[in-house]
Structure formats: structure tokens, C-alpha cells
Amino acid sequence: MKDITSMRNEISQLDNELIRLISERMKKCGDVAEYKKKNELLVYDNDIMQEKLKDIMENTEESLRSYVYMLYSFLFDISRTYEQSLMNPSTELMEKITSAIENTDKVFPPYAVVACPGVEGAFSQQACEKIFEIPNIMYFNNFEGVFSAIDKGLCKYGILPVENSTAGSVNEIYDLMMKYHFCIVRSIRLKIDHSLLVKPGTKLEDVKEIFSHEQGFGQCANYIKELKNVKVTVCENTASAAKLVSESERTDIAAIASIDCARLYGLQSLDESIQNTDNNYTRFICISKKMEIYAGADKTSIMMTIGHKPGSLYKVLSRFYALGINLVKLESRPLPDRDFEFMFYFDLETSVYSKRFTQLICELDEMSEKFSYLGSYFEIM
Questions:
Q1: Model confidence over 248-261: pLDDT tens digits?
Q2: What are the two backbone dihedrals, phi and then psi, of residue 154, each rounded to the nearest 5 degrees?
Q3: How many CA atoms lie within 13 A of 194 on its CB side?
Q4: How far is CA 217 from the centre of its chain?
Q5: Measured CA angle at 326 (ends 321, 327), to 5 deg
Q6: Residue 312 pLDDT class (50, 70, 90 cuts)
Q7: What is the pLDDT of the chain when averaged over all its residues?
Q8: Could you give all domains of the chain from N- to C-terminal order, each with its CATH number?
Q9: Which of 156, 158, 152 is nearest to 139 (CA)?
């Protein structure tokens, strides 16, 4: 019987042969790409690929078919990626991105007119003041007001929360993303500490109703469970909730908001850091109408609508894998005008200056029914 060293050596010899054969195969793919480009043919023909996979399965013993299928699916993906890079080294979108890189100022602007949801004291204000040195903030009642202000040119930038480490994604933002045209130019992760705020003199046992944003309630769910016979009422914003309590004549209500709101609205903090976990962060994005790409951009956000058929999402995900691009967020939202079909949102980690980024952007438009590039940017931690 052979020892394990001998068996590994035999596998190494087979690996060397595989490398030679794959190299030969990729060269042939290059020839095919040249022919397709000359004759204006599509890079990808699904019917041909499926027929080829069927032939391969018929020539593979049954016990290995699932493994061979995975191997050839991936091999077809990287072959298509290679062909695409030869046939379409650039696209109209990639040219716009390149232009944005060249024409955007080298330094992020210290001053700007910025739209924020809520009122003074909102967490969006804190995020804004960390992104901009001297922001001129305009407050809007809701998230759509911020999108609309950017769309109409009322403000140059807008700040919006997209996800929280405890309560998850802010679904309304992703739904609004499908409605408005915008670009993400910066993002920030902001530590969120919530306090229970009341009018001076109100005691915890007096509180019968608490006001906050739904994300605030989600992030403080454990604390709220311990309170007895207390009603929760959702507001547009945590700071708006604090302002409501301050202006109300009632003495049996409270707000879940930041400690800054206590000072701003003359409230008293009954409990501080009441969120479920001390490791509570919200990610905010900074958006503009114009595409701006600043130095250090290593995160990219995109949206896609893909065909409602088996393997459609897998083909997109396999492209990220084939290019060695890290997927850090995948979000899906239902399309309002279609039954059980979805818009997919992706956050990717890859430098905007890398070759793999260029390849990806040049390929994705062809793979989707609708493709939206939302921007490349740097995230403040």
C-alpha cells in the first residue's frame, strides 16, 4: 500500500497537469473572445453553457457529479470573466467613474449645506459633524425629505442611517434608494448610546408612554421589556421624540434619545446607555446628486435587479468570488410593481483604483435587468 507522501506527490503531478490544461483552455477562451468581438457576439450564451454542463454530467460518474458540476460552473465563470475583460475593457459607466476620480477635489469639503433627518440633537447631526468640519445643517421631517432635498439641489449633501449593529437595516432607506438618483460619497460608523429622557421631576414609575424612532425601540428592546404597562409610540426621529416630550404638558411620558437631547430640550435622564448592547453602532451614508470619488475610496455600493430564475443571484455572487472581491453586505427589498421579485443591494470591499474593480463594473451591467452604481467611497470608523 502506498504511503500518504507518495499519494500526495501523485496529486501534485496531477495539479501540474491541470495548471497546464487550464492555461491552454484560457488561451483558447482568448481566441473565442477575439472572434466574438470581431463578430459582435455576446460574451455569455446561457443555452450553450447549459448544454455543455449537461454533456459533462453525462460523462461523469454519478457519485462525483455534484463536485464536477461546482468545478465547471466556477470554471465557466472565470472563463467568462476573462473573455469579458478582453472584449470590453471599459464601458460608458466606467468612463464616468474614471472622470469622477479625475475631477473630484483631492480633499473632502470641510464646509457644505447638508440635509439631515429629524431635528437638532439627532444622531444624524452627530454623524454629519464628524464627516464635515463646519456643516450648515438643514433638518427635514423624514428620510424622503433628505432624498428630495438632494434631488432638487436644495442641499449638496445628505446624511442617512442605513443599518444598525443591533436592530439591523433601515428598510425605508433601501426602498427610497429605488426611487431617487444619488451617489454615496462617504460613510461613517457612529456609536449610539440611548437614554430615557423625561421632564424634570418625572419618576420612572410615573412613565406610561415612551416616544422614539422604531430603530431606537429595537435597539433598546431589552430595557423596554422590563418596564410594566408602558405604551411605545413611534416618532419620525429620536430627537423629535425628545422635543415632543419637552413641549408636551404631560408628565407621564418619556423619550428614548441621545443624552445631548436632554441638554438641548431641558429634559432629565432617568437611565443612560439603555441600548441592548454597549457595542451599538449605526452606519450612516453621505449622499450627493453628483458623482464624487475621493482619495482612499475602498468601498463600493451597487443595486441590481436580476432575472427571477434559478441561479441568477449565484451568478452575481460567483463573479465577486472569481474576482476576489469581498462582499460585506447583501440586502434584498421587494419590487413594488412585481410579485416576489427583488432589488438586491451590495456593499463591496475593493479599491476603486484596482483592475478587479474595473472588470466588475464592466461585467455587471450585462448580467442584470437593471444595474445602478451608487458610488465608491471611504468609510470613517
A1: 989 999 999 999 99
A2: -65, -35
A3: 34
A4: 23
A5: 95
A6: confident
A7: 88
A8: 4-87 (1.20.59.10), 195-272 (3.40.190.10), 296-381 (3.30.70.260)
A9: 158
